[in-house]
Automatic annotation (TrEMBL):
One of its GO terms (biological process) is nucleotide-sugar metabolic process. It comes from the Eukaryota. The lineage of its organism: Eukaryota, Fungi, Dikarya, Ascomycota, Pezizomycotina. GO terms for molecular function: dTDP-glucose 4,6-dehydratase activity. Gene3D superfamilies: NAD(P)-binding Rossmann-like Domain, UDP-galactose 4-epimerase, domain 1. Residues 59-368 form the NAD(P)-binding domain. Keywords: Lyase, NAD. Its cofactor is NAD(+). Pfam families: GDP_Man_Dehyd. This is NAD(P)-binding domain-containing protein. The keyword Lyase applies.
């Protein structure tokens, strides 16, 4: 899609036309064709516990996004007679209703479009569905974007979490499970011990800082209002249904298109990876067996560098990669993030004591992820071409390459042509009616 022009209003009241040339607008409400989506496997976790008597109506924020859609499918299909699931999502650029389409006919599943930063959206939903339990996943989740668009991260991740907590406090709630990340701990030097839940938080980028700030609000609501909160900090998660802005699905789709893998920096940073089906089991375990007031790491032992991800994917795609020459036929190094943590390393003993262990090896999880993207990756979210570029820029559901976005006129340049007035007609009329002049 291209050449979209939309009249908008500047905060000072002036009109301007923001030129939105050569962008892609994603539509998270569009469905893949009937024939295709029915062929998608119904992916969920494998655990099942005795349902909690105090939980019946469960709100899952961000339910049309990656991890939450797995959890929505899991709870809806595993506990059909006990839990009613309400997926609450604003349908941002990375969401897709395809992620939960399989549930559309289930009597215990409802989708509500709403924004966690809107106190009235949240209040309406809590009341309408008599919500007693909240799983809070909704967030701006892509670190790369947080370097360019950090206000959006603070707004959604901090203020949005605050709104949910405050509305939950007013409404009354049996359990509120807040999804955080291992990134709140910051960089862990090579050779240092794995961090436990009591380690200091030391975030280093705007995304992780916003998640750490949200955790402070969670902690305050736990102390001040005795809200029954549990916080979960997970390692990196991967698997089918992840929007292809993140490294694993992005690289799969690039290889699928026979394009080079775009590796930020030298490719040496490592991350620990948990398969989506395994995090679902971990969350189900924490929900049914965890203790209110506690924090749980969800930790894996699969620590993989970005370079290693390239090797493993090239191997799966049957492309020669062992010699440096062969490797560089398929890998292009780009500039790095402004700051990139070398590694995160968390200790999972506390959750292991509740009985959870990851079941899916990285090899196995990666194989099934590749298979899914080869079949559905090109159609699930619409045109992902711009998403696959090194540093895409996102505003709402509109996406540009960095170069295209850099070439756009800034708001101010576009707003104030030589003869443009700062005054809207309405403001001007009001002013003149009161006897004033410009
Ligand atoms: N993906 C990972 O590797 C990972 C690891 C650890 C923790 N987490 C955390 O898990 C959660 C989910 O991550 P994900 O990767 O599945 O994210 P995602 O980006 O795939 O999904 C986020 C969802 O939140 C929705 N959303 C965004 N802003 C919203 C708003 N204002 N109101 C309502 N909905 C809104 C989006 O539409 C989207 O569906 C996040 O809190 C993230 O910080 C993710």
């Amino acid at each position: 899609m291209s050449a979209v022009e939309s009249p908008e209003l500047l905060p000072n009241g002036a009109h301007y036309v923001k030129r939105r040339r050569d962008s892609t607008i994603l539509n998270p409400k569009s469905y893949v064709t009937a024939e295709l989506w029915k062929q998608a496997p119904v992916l969920k976790g494998s655990t099942k516990f005795e349902p909690l008597p105090e939980s019946r109506n469960i709100l899952i924020t961000g339910g049309a996004g990656f991890i939450a859609c797995w959890f929505v499918r899991h709870l809806t299909l595993t506990y059909p007679d006990h839990y009613n699931i309400v997926s609450f999502d604003k349908l941002d650029y990375c969401a897709s209703l395809n992620n939960t389409r399989i549930l559309d006919g289930c009597p215990n599943f409802t989708f509500e479009q709403g924004d966690i930063t809107s106190p009235s959206d949240v209040k309406k939903c809590l009341r309408k569905h008599k919500i007693d339990t909240i799983f809070h996943f909704a967030a701006q989740s892509h670190v790369d974007l947080s370097f360019g668009n950090s206000y959006q991260f603070t707004n959604t991740n901090v203020y949005g979490t605050h709104v949910l907590l405050e509305r939950a406090r007013e409404h009354g709630i049996a359990r509120f499970i807040h999804i955080s990340t291992d990134e709140v701990y910051g960089d862990v030097p090579i050779g240092a011990a794995d961090l436990s839940e009591t380690s200091l938080l030391a975030p280093t980028n705007p995304y992780s800082a916003s998640k750490a700030a949200a955790e402070m609000m969670v902690s305050a609501y736990r102390s001040s209002f005795k809200l029954p909160l549990i916080t979960v900090r997970s390692n990196n998660v991967y698997g089918p249904h992840q929007f292809p802005e993140k490294i694993i699905p992005k690289f799969i789709m690039l290889l699928q298109r026979k394009s080079k893998l775009l590796v930020h920096g030298d490719g040496s940073p490592t991350r620990r990876y948990v398969y989506a089906g395994d995090i679902v089991d971990a969350l189900d375990t924490i929900f049914h067996k965890g203790t209110i007031g506690q924090i749980y790491n969800i930790a894996s032992k699969d620590e993989i560098s970005n370079t290693d991800i390239c090797h493993r994917l090239l191997e799966i795609f049957g492309l020669p990669h062992k010699s440096p020459q062969d490797f560089l036929k398929w890998v292009q190094h780009t500039e790095d993030r402004p700051f990139n943590d070398q590694r995160y390393a968390t200790d999972g003993a506390k959750l292991a004591a509740l009985g959870w262990q990851p079941k899916t090896s990285f090899e196995e999880g990666l194989q099934s992820t590749v298979k899914w993207y080869q079949r559905f990756g090109e159609v699930w979210w619409g045109d992902i071409s711009r998403v696959l570029t090194p540093f895409p820029v996102v505003e709402g559901t509109e996406i540009w390459t960095k170069e295209e976005h850099d070439a756009l006129p800034s708001d101010e340049e576009t707003a104030l042509g030589e003869n443009d007035s700062l005054w809207t007609t309405k403001a001007l009329n009001n002013l003149q009616a009161s006897g004033g002049t410009v």
